[in-house]
Amino acid sequence: MKDAFDTDTPVDAAALREDLAQGWGLPTSFYASPKIHDLDLNKIFRRSWTYLCPASRVAQPDNSAIGMAGDIPVVVIRGKDGVLRGFVNMCRHRGYKVATEDQAKCRRLTCKYHAWSYLATGELANAPGMNDEPGFDKSALSLKPVQVFQWGSAVLVNPDMDAPGFLDAHPQMASEADRLGIELDPDAYDFVSETVHDVPSNWKVWYDNFVECYHCDHIHRGSFSAAYESDIKSVDTRFNDTFMASRFAPKPAETGVALRANNYRSLNIFPGLLILQQDHLMILSQMRPLGPELTEQKVHYFAPKGTRADLVKDWIALWEETFGEDGDAVAIQQQGLRTGAVERNRLMPNREEAVVFFNGLVLDAYGRM
Q1: How far apart are CA 256 and CA 278, in angstroms?
Q2: What is the pLDDT of residues 45-90, one digit of tens each?
Q3: Which terminus of the chain is more solvent-facing, meaning fewer CB atoms within 10 Å of its CB: N or C?
Q4: What confidence tier does 126 reach under pLDDT thresholds 50, 70, 90?
């Protein structure tokens, strides 16, 4: 294993890949470094597909929704032609947002700072005083586009217009969703609620926790592990280039717990998108870095149509308890990792295969020019 190195030097992704193959995690300096944080934003989140909002928010013409793709503000709008378009949510004048909230009727995107307005197709419609400005070419001042794609109940965006489309970026996604029985009809679910967790840890610490269940029987004994069969030997997991597809075995009936999952299947898509469907619930979740030691996890809960409201409420409470326990755990980890007192963590690849897999995707991104 090579020593940890100063993050002022370029990341040697190939060398770190070799270490990862031997069970060694990333240098702990990578979990608190502002320079690595910038690398994560530039190499990963500004170039990847991330979850923005439920499709129901932009189902009708003139519907618009706002959100973030990493650190980039984004707005999506359904045109009168039915086409869903996405843009960087920044006016071409001085960078103020052209949309500050979701809107059911949004015929134009108008900056409230100086009243520049844009059509739903992104073209600049009007800028007060523009006719008095010599050489002012409004055709060159459209909103900057982002890629947008609806898949099932999710609206996904990518700030990189040169990146492959969502299904091209994840070529096995459709077949894995079909194998697991993921329901892609957005009309099969009703949106229920949103929670946002600001987690005091680096996003990679939170991600490592999020994808492995080596810890489940220890810190989730009364929550997740009570409702799900979390023995890793019973979980059907496949790794497919950029995501993992999982199906948990049913929880044995003789456990006698009030909530018991019989049908859990999920897609965990790099970087930080979770699509999970189970008894009485669907979760769409996206994590993103807010700083070197702060992560946002946005969670949207949906219910299959016709599901009893009390069951949905109980499942959401269980998941929120689980996320809270996870947040407490990674906050304690972060306190130690930021010191650099231990330079590298020794992973358990047979039990943390998902951690190794996703750490490898991080290194792949670092290695790309």
Answers
A1: 19
A2: 999 999 999 999 999 999 999 999 999 999 999 999 999 999 999 9
A3: C
A4: very high
- Read off the tokens for 136: 């002012």
Q: How far apart are CA 40 and CA 241, in angstroms?
A: 19
How far is 58 from 87, CA to CA, in rounded Å?
Answer: 14
Q: Which helix or strand (DSSP H or E) is residue 197 part of?
A: strand 189-199
β-sheet bridge partners, residue 246 = 237, 266
Q: What is the mean pLDDT of the chain?
A: 94
Q: How many CB atoms lie within 10 A of CB 241?
A: 14
Measured at the alpha carbon of residue 61, what is the angle toward residues 169 and 121, in degrees to the nearest 5? Answer: 65
Which helix or strand (DSSP H or E) is residue 43 part of?
helix 34-43
pTM for the model stands at: 0.94
Question: b/e map of 311-323 (b: 16 or more CB within 10 Å)?
Answer: ebebbbebbbebb
Token pair in block for residue 95: 């960078």
C-beta separation of 48 from 74 below 8 A: no
CA angle 146-152-153, nearest 5°?
Answer: 80
Percent of the chain whose predicted confidence (pLDDT) is above 90: 89
Three-state SS string over 217-245 comes to: HHHCCCCHHHHCCCCHHHCEEEEECCEEE
CA distance 257 to 254: 8
Nearest alpha carbon to residue 124 among 148, 94, 91: 91
Angstrom distance (rounded) from CA 9 to CA 39: 12
3-class secondary-structure state, position 293: coil
DSSP bridge pairs for 147: 158
- In this structure, what DSSP letter does residue 31 have? G
In this structure, what are the phi and psi dihedrals at residue 270, rounded to the nearest 5 degrees? -65, 135
Helices (H), 145-214: 166-169, 173-180, 203-211
Q: How many other C-beta atoms lie within 10 A of the C-beta of residue 369? A: 3
How many CA atoms lie within 13 Å of 114's alpha carbon, on the beta-carbon side? 13
Mind listing the domains of the chain with CATH numbers?
A: 50-167 (2.102.10.10), 171-367 (3.90.380.10)
10 Å CB burial of residue 9 (0-12, 13-18, 19+) is exposed
Q: What are the φ and ψ backbone dihedral angles of 49, each rounded to 5 degrees? A: -80, 130
Mean pLDDT of 103-127: 97
